[in-house]
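Now for a typical sample entry:
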Amino acid sequence: MGVGVLGAGHYAPENVVTNKELEKIVDTTDEWIRTRTGIEERRIATDDEDTSDMAYKAAVTALKDAGTKAEDLDLILVATVTPDTPFPSVSCMLQERLGASKAAAMDLGAACAGFMYAMITAQQYIETGAYDNILIIGVDKLSKIINWSDRNTCVLLGDGAGAAVLGKVSPEKGILSFELGADGSGGKELFQNNETGYLEMNGREVYKFAVRQMPQSTANVVEKAGLKKEDVDFLVPHQANIRIMNAARERIGISEDKMAKVIQWYGNNSSASIPIALSESLQQGKIKDEDIVVLVGFGGGLTWGAVALRWGK
Protein backbone atom coordinates (compact mmCIF):
# COMPACT_ATOMS: atom_id res chain seq x y z
CA MET A 1 0.00 0.00 0.00
CA GLY A 2 0.99 3.60 -0.50
CA VAL A 3 0.69 6.36 2.10
CA GLY A 4 -1.33 9.39 1.13
CA VAL A 5 -3.69 12.15 2.16
CA LEU A 6 -7.21 10.92 2.94
CA GLY A 7 -8.62 14.37 3.71
CA ALA A 8 -7.63 17.95 4.46
CA GLY A 9 -9.02 21.07 6.09
CA HIS A 10 -8.00 24.48 7.35
CA TYR A 11 -9.06 27.31 9.60
CA ALA A 12 -8.14 30.99 9.80
CA PRO A 13 -9.39 33.56 12.33
CA GLU A 14 -12.17 35.91 11.24
CA ASN A 15 -10.21 39.05 12.10
CA VAL A 16 -8.67 40.44 8.89
CA VAL A 17 -5.81 42.94 9.05
CA THR A 18 -5.09 44.70 5.75
CA ASN A 19 -1.92 46.38 4.58
CA LYS A 20 -3.70 49.72 4.86
CA GLU A 21 -4.29 49.07 8.55
CA LEU A 22 -0.61 48.27 9.07
CA GLU A 23 0.30 51.60 7.50
CA LYS A 24 -1.22 53.21 10.59
CA ILE A 25 1.01 51.41 13.10
CA VAL A 26 4.35 50.89 11.32
CA ASP A 27 6.43 52.70 8.70
CA THR A 28 5.35 50.82 5.56
CA THR A 29 2.95 51.07 2.62
CA ASP A 30 0.39 48.82 1.01
CA GLU A 31 2.26 49.09 -2.32
CA TRP A 32 5.60 48.10 -0.77
CA ILE A 33 4.13 45.02 0.94
CA ARG A 34 2.22 43.86 -2.14
CA THR A 35 5.09 44.33 -4.60
CA ARG A 36 7.77 42.84 -2.36
CA THR A 37 5.82 39.95 -0.82
CA GLY A 38 2.49 39.44 -2.59
CA ILE A 39 0.59 39.87 0.69
CA GLU A 40 -2.58 42.00 0.79
CA GLU A 41 -4.03 40.94 4.14
CA ARG A 42 -3.59 38.44 6.94
CA ARG A 43 -5.70 36.88 9.71
CA ILE A 44 -4.96 37.64 13.35
CA ALA A 45 -6.48 35.66 16.21
CA THR A 46 -8.12 37.36 19.16
CA ASP A 47 -6.69 37.10 22.67
CA ASP A 48 -9.19 34.37 23.60
CA GLU A 49 -8.38 32.16 20.57
CA ASP A 50 -5.20 30.17 21.07
CA THR A 51 -3.20 27.72 19.00
CA SER A 52 -5.14 24.66 20.15
CA ASP A 53 -8.46 26.30 19.25
CA MET A 54 -7.36 26.88 15.67
CA ALA A 55 -5.89 23.38 15.46
CA TYR A 56 -9.14 21.85 16.64
CA LYS A 57 -11.23 23.61 13.99
CA ALA A 58 -8.89 22.59 11.19
CA ALA A 59 -8.77 19.01 12.52
CA VAL A 60 -12.55 18.66 12.58
CA THR A 61 -12.74 19.74 8.94
CA ALA A 62 -9.97 17.38 7.88
CA LEU A 63 -11.51 14.39 9.67
CA LYS A 64 -14.85 15.08 8.02
CA ASP A 65 -13.22 15.38 4.60
CA ALA A 66 -11.39 12.07 5.15
CA GLY A 67 -14.45 10.28 6.49
CA THR A 68 -12.36 9.27 9.51
CA LYS A 69 -13.64 9.18 13.08
CA ALA A 70 -11.50 10.70 15.82
CA GLU A 71 -11.70 7.47 17.80
CA ASP A 72 -10.00 5.66 14.90
CA LEU A 73 -6.89 7.86 15.00
CA ASP A 74 -3.67 6.17 16.08
CA LEU A 75 -1.48 9.26 16.33
CA ILE A 76 -1.81 13.04 16.36
CA LEU A 77 1.18 15.12 15.25
CA VAL A 78 1.07 18.88 15.68
CA ALA A 79 3.73 21.06 14.09
CA THR A 80 3.93 24.39 15.92
CA VAL A 81 6.38 26.87 17.43
CA THR A 82 3.67 28.76 19.32
CA PRO A 83 1.96 26.22 21.61
CA ASP A 84 -0.62 27.36 24.16
CA THR A 85 1.80 26.28 26.89
CA PRO A 86 5.13 24.42 26.93
CA PHE A 87 3.16 21.44 28.23
CA PRO A 88 0.75 19.81 27.94
CA SER A 89 1.34 19.77 24.21
CA VAL A 90 -1.17 21.09 21.70
CA SER A 91 -1.51 17.53 20.40
CA CYS A 92 -2.55 16.26 23.83
CA MET A 93 -5.07 19.08 24.19
CA LEU A 94 -6.42 18.14 20.79
CA GLN A 95 -6.58 14.43 21.60
CA GLU A 96 -8.83 15.13 24.58
CA ARG A 97 -11.00 17.66 22.75
CA LEU A 98 -11.52 15.43 19.70
CA GLY A 99 -12.19 12.34 21.78
CA ALA A 100 -9.33 10.48 20.08
CA SER A 101 -8.80 8.29 23.12
CA LYS A 102 -6.51 5.66 21.56
CA ALA A 103 -4.23 8.12 19.76
CA ALA A 104 -0.69 8.85 20.85
CA ALA A 105 0.11 12.55 20.65
CA MET A 106 3.18 14.73 20.24
CA ASP A 107 4.20 18.16 19.02
CA LEU A 108 7.22 18.82 16.83
CA GLY A 109 8.98 22.05 15.97
CA ALA A 110 10.55 22.84 12.61
CA ALA A 111 9.02 26.31 12.17
CA CYS A 112 7.62 26.88 8.67
CA ALA A 113 8.83 23.45 7.52
CA GLY A 114 6.99 21.78 10.39
CA PHE A 115 4.12 20.38 8.34
CA MET A 116 6.58 18.65 6.01
CA TYR A 117 8.37 17.10 8.98
CA ALA A 118 5.03 15.93 10.38
CA MET A 119 3.96 14.43 7.07
CA ILE A 120 7.15 12.43 6.65
CA THR A 121 7.08 11.29 10.28
CA ALA A 122 3.53 10.06 9.78
CA GLN A 123 4.51 8.25 6.59
CA GLN A 124 7.15 6.23 8.45
CA TYR A 125 4.70 5.03 11.10
CA ILE A 126 2.16 3.97 8.48
CA GLU A 127 4.67 2.28 6.19
CA THR A 128 6.02 0.16 9.03
CA GLY A 129 2.50 -1.00 9.84
CA ALA A 130 2.61 0.51 13.32
CA TYR A 131 -0.34 2.85 12.70
CA ASP A 132 -3.15 3.19 10.17
CA ASN A 133 -4.65 6.65 10.64
CA ILE A 134 -2.62 9.72 11.59
CA LEU A 135 -3.82 13.29 11.96
CA ILE A 136 -1.20 15.92 11.18
CA ILE A 137 -1.65 19.61 11.82
CA GLY A 138 0.41 22.70 11.11
CA VAL A 139 -0.72 25.55 13.34
CA ASP A 140 0.76 28.79 14.64
CA LYS A 141 -0.43 31.90 16.41
CA LEU A 142 2.48 34.04 15.31
CA SER A 143 0.73 37.22 16.42
CA LYS A 144 1.74 36.50 20.02
CA ILE A 145 5.45 36.59 19.17
CA ILE A 146 5.32 39.46 16.65
CA ASN A 147 6.87 42.82 17.43
CA TRP A 148 4.30 45.11 15.85
CA SER A 149 6.83 47.93 15.60
CA ASP A 150 9.23 45.81 13.50
CA ARG A 151 8.25 46.39 9.90
CA ASN A 152 10.64 43.67 8.71
CA THR A 153 8.50 40.95 10.27
CA CYS A 154 5.06 42.19 11.28
CA VAL A 155 3.88 42.77 7.70
CA LEU A 156 4.66 39.18 6.71
CA LEU A 157 2.95 37.03 9.30
CA GLY A 158 -0.50 35.77 10.22
CA ASP A 159 -2.33 33.13 12.27
CA GLY A 160 -4.01 29.93 11.12
CA ALA A 161 -4.14 26.15 11.03
CA GLY A 162 -4.15 23.45 8.38
CA ALA A 163 -4.69 19.72 8.84
CA ALA A 164 -4.60 16.45 6.96
CA VAL A 165 -5.40 12.83 7.70
CA LEU A 166 -2.81 10.37 6.39
CA GLY A 167 -3.45 6.71 5.81
CA LYS A 168 -3.06 3.81 3.41
CA VAL A 169 -3.89 4.40 -0.25
CA SER A 170 -3.51 2.42 -3.48
CA PRO A 171 0.06 1.22 -4.20
CA GLU A 172 0.58 3.59 -7.13
CA LYS A 173 -0.65 6.64 -5.21
CA GLY A 174 0.43 8.69 -2.23
CA ILE A 175 3.92 9.84 -1.28
CA LEU A 176 6.47 8.98 -3.95
CA SER A 177 9.56 10.67 -2.51
CA PHE A 178 10.62 13.16 0.13
CA GLU A 179 13.48 15.32 1.33
CA LEU A 180 14.09 16.72 4.79
CA GLY A 181 17.03 18.86 5.78
CA ALA A 182 18.44 21.25 8.33
CA ASP A 183 21.30 23.71 8.69
CA GLY A 184 21.69 24.65 12.32
CA SER A 185 24.38 27.18 11.49
CA GLY A 186 21.63 29.38 10.06
CA GLY A 187 19.59 29.39 13.26
CA LYS A 188 20.73 32.91 14.08
CA GLU A 189 19.04 34.24 10.94
CA LEU A 190 15.48 33.44 12.08
CA PHE A 191 14.69 32.88 15.74
CA GLN A 192 12.64 33.85 18.79
CA ASN A 193 14.58 36.17 21.08
CA ASN A 194 14.49 34.76 24.62
CA GLU A 195 14.84 38.20 26.18
CA THR A 196 12.05 39.96 24.28
CA GLY A 197 9.95 36.95 23.29
CA TYR A 198 9.71 38.36 19.76
CA LEU A 199 10.50 36.72 16.45
CA GLU A 200 13.57 38.18 14.76
CA MET A 201 14.73 37.68 11.19
CA ASN A 202 17.66 38.59 8.99
CA GLY A 203 15.48 39.03 5.92
CA ARG A 204 18.30 39.24 3.40
CA GLU A 205 19.96 35.99 4.53
CA VAL A 206 16.67 34.09 4.86
CA TYR A 207 15.66 35.21 1.38
CA LYS A 208 18.99 34.06 -0.10
CA PHE A 209 18.62 30.69 1.62
CA ALA A 210 15.00 30.26 0.51
CA VAL A 211 15.45 31.13 -3.17
CA ARG A 212 18.23 28.55 -3.29
CA GLN A 213 16.74 25.78 -1.16
CA MET A 214 13.08 25.71 -2.19
CA PRO A 215 13.74 25.30 -5.93
CA GLN A 216 16.50 22.75 -5.22
CA SER A 217 14.33 20.65 -2.92
CA THR A 218 11.50 20.77 -5.46
CA ALA A 219 13.80 19.47 -8.18
CA ASN A 220 15.28 16.85 -5.84
CA VAL A 221 12.00 15.17 -4.90
CA VAL A 222 10.87 15.11 -8.52
CA GLU A 223 14.10 13.33 -9.47
CA LYS A 224 13.92 10.95 -6.48
CA ALA A 225 10.40 9.95 -7.55
CA GLY A 226 11.72 8.97 -10.97
CA LEU A 227 9.78 11.77 -12.61
CA LYS A 228 10.60 14.62 -14.95
CA LYS A 229 9.72 18.22 -14.15
CA GLU A 230 7.17 18.09 -16.97
CA ASP A 231 5.28 15.46 -14.96
CA VAL A 232 4.44 17.88 -12.14
CA ASP A 233 0.79 18.98 -12.28
CA PHE A 234 0.64 21.21 -9.21
CA LEU A 235 3.01 22.88 -6.76
CA VAL A 236 2.14 23.78 -3.16
CA PRO A 237 4.98 25.95 -1.83
CA HIS A 238 5.34 27.55 1.58
CA GLN A 239 3.55 30.90 1.35
CA ALA A 240 6.41 33.10 2.54
CA ASN A 241 7.05 35.49 -0.32
CA ILE A 242 5.69 35.49 -3.87
CA ARG A 243 9.19 35.95 -5.31
CA ILE A 244 10.48 32.85 -3.50
CA MET A 245 7.40 30.88 -4.56
CA ASN A 246 7.89 31.85 -8.18
CA ALA A 247 11.56 30.85 -8.04
CA ALA A 248 10.49 27.30 -7.10
CA ARG A 249 7.78 27.30 -9.75
CA GLU A 250 10.13 28.44 -12.48
CA ARG A 251 12.71 25.82 -11.52
CA ILE A 252 10.35 23.05 -12.63
CA GLY A 253 8.85 25.10 -15.42
CA ILE A 254 5.16 25.14 -14.52
CA SER A 255 2.74 27.99 -15.11
CA GLU A 256 1.46 30.23 -12.34
CA ASP A 257 -2.03 28.73 -12.49
CA LYS A 258 -0.53 25.40 -11.41
CA MET A 259 0.87 26.81 -8.18
CA ALA A 260 -1.08 27.24 -4.95
CA LYS A 261 -1.18 30.94 -4.14
CA VAL A 262 -3.08 32.08 -1.05
CA ILE A 263 -0.39 34.36 0.38
CA GLN A 264 -2.42 37.43 -0.63
CA TRP A 265 -5.17 36.45 1.84
CA TYR A 266 -3.24 34.86 4.69
CA GLY A 267 0.37 36.04 4.64
CA ASN A 268 2.95 33.67 6.09
CA ASN A 269 1.33 31.27 8.58
CA SER A 270 4.51 29.35 9.45
CA SER A 271 3.74 25.62 9.79
CA ALA A 272 0.10 26.23 8.79
CA SER A 273 1.09 27.78 5.46
CA ILE A 274 1.42 24.65 3.32
CA PRO A 275 -1.66 22.79 4.64
CA ILE A 276 -3.82 25.92 4.31
CA ALA A 277 -2.66 26.34 0.71
CA LEU A 278 -3.26 22.63 0.06
CA SER A 279 -6.76 22.69 1.56
CA GLU A 280 -7.72 25.85 -0.35
CA SER A 281 -6.46 24.34 -3.61
CA LEU A 282 -8.47 21.18 -3.05
CA GLN A 283 -11.62 23.17 -2.31
CA GLN A 284 -11.09 25.15 -5.50
CA GLY A 285 -10.78 21.95 -7.55
CA LYS A 286 -7.20 22.69 -8.59
CA ILE A 287 -5.89 19.26 -7.57
CA LYS A 288 -7.38 16.21 -9.24
CA ASP A 289 -7.07 12.47 -8.88
CA GLU A 290 -3.80 11.11 -10.33
CA ASP A 291 -2.15 14.56 -10.32
CA ILE A 292 1.53 14.72 -9.42
CA VAL A 293 1.72 17.25 -6.59
CA VAL A 294 4.83 18.68 -4.93
CA LEU A 295 4.73 20.25 -1.46
CA VAL A 296 7.81 22.22 -0.42
CA GLY A 297 8.74 24.52 2.44
CA PHE A 298 11.52 26.04 4.50
CA GLY A 299 11.71 27.58 7.94
CA GLY A 300 13.67 28.59 10.99
CA GLY A 301 16.30 26.19 12.20
CA LEU A 302 17.13 26.49 9.37
CA THR A 303 14.97 23.63 8.11
CA TRP A 304 13.43 22.51 4.85
CA GLY A 305 11.31 19.71 3.48
CA ALA A 306 9.58 18.58 0.30
CA VAL A 307 7.30 15.77 -0.83
CA ALA A 308 6.27 14.50 -4.25
CA LEU A 309 3.04 12.52 -4.34
CA ARG A 310 0.48 11.13 -6.73
CA TRP A 311 -2.86 12.44 -5.54
CA GLY A 312 -5.71 10.10 -4.72
CA LYS A 313 -6.72 7.15 -2.61
